[in-house]
Each structure stands twice: as structure tokens, then as C-alpha cells.
Specification:
This protein has 427 residues and is α/β, with parallel strands linked by helices. The chain is built from 13 helices and 20 strands. The strands form 5 sheets. Strands 9-7-5-2-10-1-11-15-19-20 form a 10-stranded mixed β-sheet, with helices on both faces. Strands 14, 16, 17 and 18 form a 4-stranded mixed β-sheet that branches. A hairpin with a 2-residue loop joins strand 16 (339-348) and strand 17. The radius of gyration is 22 Å and the shape is globular. It binds inosinic acid. Inosinic acid binds at residues 12-13, 38-40, 125-128, 130, 132-133, 222-223, 227, 236, 238-239, 272-273.
Length: 427
């Protein structure tokens, strides 16, 4: 048995959905521990594409226990829509469990997310406007509403009443706009509560019991290392902990129970939203990668910014997450390129930086130091064995191992399950 934490090693959208799905088939329990419906996983099963934002992708297999942990923020409307969407596609959600301690996204969180972004003007973060940040703000300010408060009708009205008083004051005095009616939200959310209640439990007990019973548990990641509130490119980050430590805090599992941490890395780099991006290609090459890689957001549809592989980031992700292995995705997108570049260090004011800087001002001025490698003029999407990859593709991958100090466990050469080359079995 083993426990695996899967994380995104870049700015999110590394293709975690596909790797999660691959590992979820082996796992018996699949857990989400951070973020909310700002995430978007696309999973292809039997040629059918599923888009999930909140529910762990293990749900696509009837026998898996799927857990939304305490660290997740839940928009009940979105959750129920996702449950309905799955039901319409013949997928049952009987094995879904939701932590009673997870926080609830309220309508005022979504409105605040929009208003805050508007007020930031050209300093906007580029959030997904799903109310994620404001919900975590309330959690940390100790004014949030948890699932347990929601399903307890008496408590809910009181908690909502005092939260709304504060928020309506804010809408009125700061944003000069109308607030929300208590009864309206109460009625709407009470309907959600009734449907959510059967799924709610103390999920930490469940997960730890599964680990004690020596079952395979997968902690599926959302977002990515550089979007982490502590370790990411602050303030252009999300409001949770997408790094490996977040899996423990967000699920109520101790770090001694984790066996391995797999980092998912796209064969190049992408980013949505604002903020510095040293290897960004604002040219034809960037457009070509965006087109070949279908780099448009699952959640918002926004075009993703594209650039070369950044090994400074990869090394940083290896350190912050304690990576034990790497899964490289979308290698096939680079097929046919004459040469490839890997950023091995940054140049800042004439100095070479080997470590990812914590100051955004520094990062903004960093120039990538590139190493150029020959490309491969061969399609890789049908290849199933590592040894059959073109020599230059293997050279590229090997260089990533050298630069990160972490071995590659898996290489993905297309969206389908078969298009996964396994080098070392993670579970
Ligand atoms: P928020 O999470 O909606 O507050 O957005 C904060 C930042 O994180 C923005 O730059 C978003 O584009 C980014 N972000 C949030 N979730 C994801 C994700 O799943 N993939 C990529 N970027 C994300």
C-alpha cells in the first residue's frame, strides 16, 4: 500500500487531470485537499471527455472512495451541478464524502471577488472570480461558514446573519453597491444543505482509517506550486496551499503518513492570469505552442501564456514539495520543433541566480539563461515505451532529471490513458 501526493510543479494546468486519473485507477481512495472550483480537470475515459472542477476525478470509477477534504472551499451550487452532470452521464456519486469542516463559498464571496478585482485596476490578480480568495479570507478571519454550520439549520441562520451584516456594510460603505437579503440566501442554501447532508462526515477519520488498513490513497492536486499562497509568486497566487504540505493540512493526515510526492510538469511552461513569467514567449513560437497544446483554460476559457521549460522553477518545486518523482506531460506538443530551450538559471542585474527569487520585483527583471537542445522530428503520441522515444526527446527528459535532481516516473504523450509511458510505478 502507499500514499501519494500529486502536485502541480508550475503555475497550474500541468495536465494533472490525466495523471490523477491514471493513478486514481490504482488508488482506492482519492482526496482533494485544497482550493475549490477555480480548478479544472479534464479527464478522458474511453474517449469521453469529463470536465471536473470540485469532485475528485476518482469519481469516474464506481468503487473508489472520493473525499473533499477540510482544506477545500465548496460552492454548494457548483458541487450539486457537478453531481447532476455526473448523474446525467451515468456516473454515481454514492462514494463521495465531504468534510464537515470545509468552508462554504457564499454569494457575497463571488461578488467580492469581482469587486476586488475591479478595484485593483491594472494591478488585478486575474482571479477566476469564483469567490475563492474572499472565502479563504473569511476562514482566516474566523468569520467563515463551514459545511457543518450549513447543514445545521438553526446555527446557519445565526452565522449567516452576522456574516451578512458585516458584508452588507462593506458593500454599502466601501463598494457603494447593494448587498444581499438574509432570507433569500438562507432559503437557497437550505435547499443545498438538504442535498449535501448525506455526503458529509469527518473525512480525516475516513482517510486515516484507510491508511491504517493499508489501502492506496491518492491526494490529487489542484493549481500549482507557483500559485501557493506562501511559496508562489505572491500576490499573483491563489489563496490556498497547492504544495505538498497542503495535502496534509487540508485533509487531516500527518506528514509521516505520506510515502511519495509526484510533481506534474508540463514539457514547457504556461500561466493564466497576471504576474511575471521569465520564459514567456510573446511571439510566434508562443502562439504555436498554445495552438498545439490547446492552451485555453478549462475553468475560464482564457488563453494561457506559453513559454519554454524553466528548470529554476522545477528545482524550486522539487525543494518546496520534497518531490520523489516527476511526471512530464504534453511532450508530444514539442514534436517537430527544430530546437528547444531550457532555462537553467536567471540573470539579474548581471548576476546569475540559481534559486527562484522570493521578490516579484527581482523576478520581473530576471532574464532567462537558456541552454539549447536539438528537437525531434518525429511524432511521439503513439509511443508506449520509453526506449522507443526519439533520442533527442530522451536527451531532453534526461536533462530535466539532471537539472531538478528528481527522476522522471512518467511521460505523457497525449490526452488518452494509453498515451502514458510509465518508467517507475508511483504506487
Ligand atoms: P483564484 O484562485 O481564483 O483566486 O485566482 C488566483 C490566481 O490563481 C489567478 O492567477 C488564477 O488564474 C490562478 N488559478 C487559480 N486556479 C487555477 C488553476 O486551476 N490553474 C491555473 N491557474 C489557476
Amino acid at each position: 500500500m502507499s500514499t501519494v501526493v500529486l502536485i502541480g510543479a508550475q503555475w497550474g494546468d500541468e495536465g494533472k487531470g490525466k495523471i490523477t486519473d491514471f493513478l486514481a485507477r490504482q488508488a482506492e481512495v482519492v482526496v482533494r485537499s485544497q482550493g475549490g472550483n477555480n480548478a479544472g480537470h479534464t479527464v478522458v475515459v474511453d474517449d469521453k471527455e469529463y470536465k471536473l472542477h470540485l469532485i475528485p476525478s476518482g469519481i469516474l470509477y464506481p468503487e473508489k472512495l472520493c473525499v473533499i477534504g477540510n482544506g477545500v472551499v465548496i460552492d454548494p451550487k457548483v458541487l450539486l451541478e457537478e453531481i447532476d452532470y455526473l448523474a446525467e452521464n451515468g456516473i454515481q456519486t454514492d462514494n463521495l464524502r465531504i468534510s464537515s469542516s470545509a468552508h462554504v463559498i457564499m454569494p457575497y464571496h463571488k461578488k467580492l471577488d469581482e469587486l476586488q478585482e475591479e478595484r485593483r485596476g491594472n494591478k488585478k490578480i486575474g482571479t477566476t472570480k469564483r469567490g475563492i480568495g474572499p472565502c479563504y479570507m473569511d476562514k482566516i478571519a474566523r468569520t467563515g461558514i463551514r459545511i457543518i454550520d450549513l447543514i445545521n439549520a438553526n446555527d446557519f441562520k445565526e452565522t449567516l446573519g452576522s456574516a451578512l451584516q458585516d458584508k452588507n456594510y462593506l458593500f454599502d460603505k466601501v463598494y457603494n453597491t447593494t448587498g444581499f437579503e438574509l432570507q433569500e440566501i438562507y432559503d437557497e442554501y437550505m435547499q443545498y444543505a438538504e442535498r449535501i447532508r448525506p455526503y458529509v462526515t469527518d473525512t480525516s477519520v475516513l482517510i486515516n482509517k484507510a491508511i491504517d488498513e493499508r489501502r492506496d490513497v491518492l491526494f490529487e492536486g489542484a493549481q500549482g506550486t507557483l500559485l501557493d499562497i506562501d511559496h508562489g509568486t505572491y500576490p499573483f497566487v491563489t489563496s490556498s496551499y497547492p504544495t505538498s504540505g497542503g495535502a496534509c493540512v487540508g485533509s487531516g493526515v500527518g506528514p509521516t503518513k505520506i510515502d511519495s510526492v509526484l510533481g506534474v510538469v508540463k514539457a514547457y511552461t504556461t500561466r493564466v492570469g497576471e504576474g511575471p513569467f521569465p520564459t514567456e514567449l510573446r511571439n510566434e513560437m508562443g502562439d504555436q505552442i498554445r495552438k498545439a497544446g490547446h492552451e485555453f483554460g478549462t475553468t475560464t476559457g482564457r488563453p494561457r501564456r506559453c513559454g519554454w521549460m524553466d528548470a529554476v522553477i522545477l528545482r524550486y518545486a522539487a525543494r518546496i514539495n520534497g518531490l520523489t518523482g516527476i511526471a512530464v506531460t504534453k511532450l508530444d506538443v514539442l514534436d517537430g520543433l527544430e530546437t528547444l530551450k531550457i532555462c537553467t538559471a536567471y540573470k539579474y542585474q548581471g548576476e546569475i541566480l540559481n534559486e527562484f527569487p522570493s521578490s516579484l520585483k527581482v523576478l520581473e527583471q530576471c532574464q532567462p539563461v537558456y541552454e539549447e537542445l536539438p528537437g525531434w522530428q518525429q511524432e511521439t503520441s503513439e509511443i508506449e515505451d520509453y526506449n522507443d522515444l526519439p533520442q533527442n526527446a530522451k536527451r531532453y527528459l534526461h536533462r530535466l532529471e539532471e537539472l531538478s535532481g528528481v527522476k522522471i516516473d512518467m511521460v505523457s504523450v497525449g490526452p488518452g490513458r494509453k498515451q502514458t509511458i510509465v518508467i517507475n510505478n508511483t504506487f
